[in-house]
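assembly run, all chains below
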Amino acid sequence: MPRASEWARALIALDTIELDPEVVSDTAGILFKQRDDVAALTRELASELLKPEPEQAGA
Amino acid sequence: MGKTELAKALAKALQRELLRLQCYDGLEQREALYEWNYAAQLLHMRAVEASGAARDVEAEVYQPHYLIRRPLLQALQAPAPGAVLLIDEVDRADEPFEAFLLEYLGEYQVSIPELGTIRAEVAPVTILTSNRTRELNDAVKRRCLYHWLDYPERERELAIVRAQVPGVGEKLSAQVADFAARLRDAPLRQRLPARARHCRERRSGRAR
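ok done. output:
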């Protein structure tokens, strides 16, 4: 996986203010070299991964 | 993941030139070490033939200026203080190539039939990188010092993004770092996350 900073630069070039599933799956080609991985990062999975972390129980 | 930058930084710090050999499936000795410039040699031979003179053509065409030097040979012949040699993605080359590489790394000299043995003036500082798509030969691994490059922790990655991408904005950079961290744990990931960098260094200056 390439560095996050490369991805950040591309996102800025696309005028991204914050991540959404669409821009994530659109820029999947920057995150992965393997075609299968790029295809696997669908909007659904991106959505899933963008959800905030669940609160720790008893924290 | 910064392996080329590391090699560049090392070269700069040591004030040596950086030479790079990119490995790939099917990489052969002639791409890595040297080959003769057949086309130029042929032209030379034809010219001599046409002139009708009786000359030792063979001796003329096997001269150093007809030799195309590739990174491994260039590394041996780099003038003082020597070279930093980056052999990138060694796991992509095949086993016969690895065997050849082992010999090269053990001796830092090559034998060119027509020109004789070429020894390194100053042994190169050699860095091998691997994406660990396969295990390397034990004999190669034994000769190396290891340096593992792990992916940075989220906090460090966030700091890196903010340092390297000035216009990024607090929110987006935090999201990027979070997302990158999660992606490494996601089922998408098919390979090991960390890359192994094998560093090989010769302590002594002369290679024999």
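Residues 190-208 of chain B have pLDDT under 50 and may be disordered.

Strands of chain B lie at 17-22, 34-36, 67-69, 83-88, 109-112, 116-119, 125-130, 145-149, 195-200.

not gonna interpret more than that til we talk
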